[in-house]
């Protein structure tokens, strides 16, 4: 199987919370990232978490990490239409510089 | 500050033709990376330059792909001859230092969408 897995689609109503999930396989992952890609744009780094942390909050974004289960999630509070995008989960392993990405979750925000 | 730029944004070519993609990193960034996303799947690493030297090209699919970074500034990725399975989005990224930790960010360009018919 792939190293990083994500569900492909998520539809959420404007104003609700979105939760995007990701699982990874390598226990040596040191940093885990969430990138956002809006249409026609590049990959924008949203946030990251170090593997010895279990939670990180940044304004409307909350990242939860369950290292035992190798599960990462991104919660977006008060989802807005501008949050419609593809969200990629990525990891980097110890002493490495290559990002390993998931396939991306397409989030659609409906009015 | 200008971000990472890539040219062209789209390219449509026929099987067997040659295509050259270009990436201009952020000024001053010694590290340049190429990634590829095929058929809506995961984004995969292709190679990494430190200045003009190839640090790691373990992700290059085969010898039809040639990457260069003359003078340590912009980089080109040539596909010759192109095959149908080469279709996808090619991303370039740059960073000031090699990515060894969370705070050192790889900045990505908008990508080049390549379609091989």
Strand and helix map with partners:
The complex is a heterodimer of chains A (111) and B (117).
Chain A: E1 4-6, E2 9-13, E3 18-24, E4 29-37, E5 43-50, E6 55-58, E7 61-66, E8 71-76, E9 85-93, E10 100-101, E11 105-110
Parallel strand pairs in A: 2-11
Antiparallel strand pairs in A: 1-3, 3-8, 4-5, 4-9, 6-7, 7-8, 9-10, 9-11
Chain B: E1 5-7, E2 10-13, E3 19-24, E4 31-37, E5 43-50, E6 53-56, E7 65-68, E8 75-79, E9 88-95, E10 107-108, E11 112-116
Parallel strand pairs in B: 2-11
Antiparallel strand pairs in B: 1-3, 3-8, 4-5, 4-9, 5-6, 7-8, 9-10, 9-11
Can you tell me about this structure?
- The complex is a heterodimer of chains A (111) and B (117).
- Chain A has 111 residues and is mostly beta strands.
- Helix content of chain A is 0%, strand content 59%.
- In chain A, the strands form two sheets. In chain A, strands 2, 4, 5, 9, 10 and 11 form a six-stranded mixed sheet that branches.
- The relative contact order of chain A is 0.34.
- The model of chain A has no long low-confidence stretch (mean pLDDT 91).
- Helices cover 0% and strands 48% of the residues of chain B.
- Chain B is built from no helices and eleven strands.
- Chain B starts with a strand and ends with a strand.
- Chains A and B meet through strand 4, strand 5, strand 9 and strand 10 of A and strand 4, strand 5 and strand 10 of B.
Largest interface: A-B, 28 and 31 residues
What's the end-to-end separation of chain A, in Å? 36 Å
Main pleated sheet of chain B: 7 strands, mixed
pLDDT averaged residue by residue of chain A: 91
Rg of chain A, Cα atoms, Å:
13 Å
Shape label of chain B: globular
Low-confidence segments of chain B, given as residue ranges, are none
Topology as H/E string of chain A? Answer: EEEEEEEEEEE
């Amino acid at each position: 199987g792939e190293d990083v897995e994500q569900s492909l689609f998520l539809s959420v109503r404007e104003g609700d919370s979105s939760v995007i999930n990701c699982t990874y396989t390598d226990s040596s992952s040191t940093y885990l990232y969430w990138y956002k890609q809006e249409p026609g744009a590049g990959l924008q780094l949203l946030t990251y978490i170090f593997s010895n942390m279990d939670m990180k909050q940044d304004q409307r974004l909350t990242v939860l990490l369950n290292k035992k289960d190798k599960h990462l999630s991104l919660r977006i509070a008060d989802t807005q239409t501008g949050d419609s995008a593809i969200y990629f989960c990525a990891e980097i392993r110890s002493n490495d510089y290559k990002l390993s990405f998931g396939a991306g979750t397409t989030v659609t925000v409906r009015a | 500050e200008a971000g990472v730029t890539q040219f062209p944004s789209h390219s449509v070519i026929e099987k067997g033709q040659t295509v050259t993609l270009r990436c201009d990193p952020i000024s001053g960034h010694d590290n340049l990376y190429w990634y590829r996303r095929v058929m809506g799947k995961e984004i995969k690493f292709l190679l990494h330059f430190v200045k003009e030297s190839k640090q790691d090209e373990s992700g290059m699919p085969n010898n039809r792909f040639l990457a260069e970074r003359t003078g340590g500034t912009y980089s080109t990725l040539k596909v010759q001859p192109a095959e149908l399975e080469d279709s996808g989005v090619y991303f370039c990224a740059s960073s000031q230092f090699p990515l060894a930790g969370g705070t050192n960010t790889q900045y990505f360009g908008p990508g080049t969408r390549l379609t091989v018919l």
